[in-house]
Amino acid sequence: MSKVLYDYIxxxxxxxxxxxxxxxxxxxxxxxxxxxxxxxxxTKRFELLAxxxxxxxxxxEKIAFMxxxxxxxxxxxxxxxxxxxxxxxxxxxxxxxxxxxxxEDVIKxxxxxxxxxxxxxxxxxxxxxxxLSDRYKAEAEKQGKTELAKVLxxxxxxxATSFYEALQFFRIIHFSLWLEGNYHNTVGRFDxxxxxxxxxxxxxxxYTKETALELLEDFFISFNKDSDLYPGVQQGDNGQxxxxxxxxxxxxxxxxxxxxxxxxxxxxxxxxxxxINLRVNKNTPIEVYELGSKLTKAGxxxxxxxxxxxxxxxxxxxxxxxxxxxNYVTAAxxxxxxxxxxxxxxxxxxxxxxxxxxxxxxxxxEKSETFDDFMMSVKSEIQSECDQIADGIKDLWFxxxxxxxxxxxxxxxxxxxxxxxGVHGTGIATAADSLAVIKKYxxxxxxxxxxxxxxxxxxxxxxxxxxxxxxxxxxxxxGNNEDLPDGLATELLKAxxxxxxxKVNCRGGKFRAGTGSAMFYLWHANEIGASxxxxxxxxxxxxxxxxxxFAKINGPISVIKSFTKPDFSRAINGGxxxxxxxxxxxxxxxxxxxxxxxVKAYVDMGGHQMQLNAVNSxxxxxxxxxxxxxxxxxxxxxxxxxxxxxxxxxxxxxxxxRQQYVV
Length: 663
Fold this sequence. Notes:
This protein is α/β, with parallel strands linked by helices. The chain is 46% helix and 9% strand.
């Protein structure tokens, strides 16, 4: 790693080269006046922005390209967006996101080869990319950076012939996707498509592990140059998700020397990007888990683990070809998508399990003679919510992306080979624990009446306050390996999957149920008041697939036993079991092995996805008081990591309130 370059980026000195162009803030007005088509608008905007970019080479930098144009103006006026939304369903910002392009073939063949089959808009975008690359080449020659200039003489025009060329080619592609206005641009199976270049160079004697690591670290730093300009709920929510390991299309293991170097590079740099995702399975050796656990110890909140044995089975059940399913990657957070050809919208909606329980508590509890009757109403409400979600998504439309279209086999304008929609299922612990309370204390033991429970919840436990300690401290909780809440969680997920199973979306695809929460662990919690599990009004849900924040949990082993009971192959949109560990737990010599063994146990028991976070509460609290002293302190938020001091306080507080385990 170049300490000079690293310090330059961390201190944000490179921001001095950014420029505002206020004269283009209302570029959309000109586009509207000239009645340009969406494709023409995207192309003209890209040509403009690429032309405005000024090549800048930073001290000791080997991997070039960084943003100097600060803002990307919208292609449409507010009035035009209103008209578009009146005719179509618009997801998030309306621009393409959460896709995994065909980096492998483009890096192998070059942009000129790809240009042959591109439409006129794709050709113009490619020409603009090559022109900017030529200007970077000229700047490299001017500064005497002959090695970089030689690399840019070949890429991106032609296919890469070395590891260095391949890394620089990727950087140009990734930079261009962001500049075009796409977002949550993923990295895909990096060790699978990039390792052949490293392997060939190492066999020629051009790199040792140490020298390859130095170049790789420079490459990793490049992900962090512009990340504050990328859109997300918070800074860090940018989708730069890298997948390592797993099996290939033929079922052979992928994990290799480059996979290992990526884990080491991430641990050395301690930066929030790229986010590392590690694919594992029943045959993954414990040494790989130990490498992952060493990175967890660093406190970045990754790697996130995905279990091939469960995921591939679940995807093939949904109709994905086996070779494509084996090639899956993660989207911005955790959702499973297919590189090169998949156009799944993996986060199109979310169902709140606690809201379902809240609705049934007020509308069905008093007239339900048995708990089975009440559960029937819960399942009916889940079905109704899923119906509303599906019925509300019609005529989905994205702003067409000429360069993204170039990067996909068969194009991406109107979708891809796969066009499925993912739906998050949030607050599973709150819902399951609430149902456990209703069954145990209302129906089985008659400890309090239906009316008393409703009154207690509606008053935020001001009324019947004596039952609050029972609900919070004594009632069964998901995460303690208890049959009642665990079975109810399994039943909820099955009902969710059943309700979506036969639905066909507006693009001819299916709906996928998932266990992720994203920001909904805050948003959905604010939609209801208190809940029957003893959760007070205003308290958030646990993040993703995890125990409630206030639940008294026996320990991590009981957690993984509880959270491996559902059939995840039917709730395969992703959403990891999320666990926080006290950073002090990693101090012993055997700590890495213990954590690795825990993760492996989760995978072997049939868990589908897992993410761990090493947390120092004392340090986090000090960072809230003295942010200037902790600028590089990283935490995991949901499917992404961020610098703690740059988060809004509500996200900081949630991290502090999460369960912390030891092994």
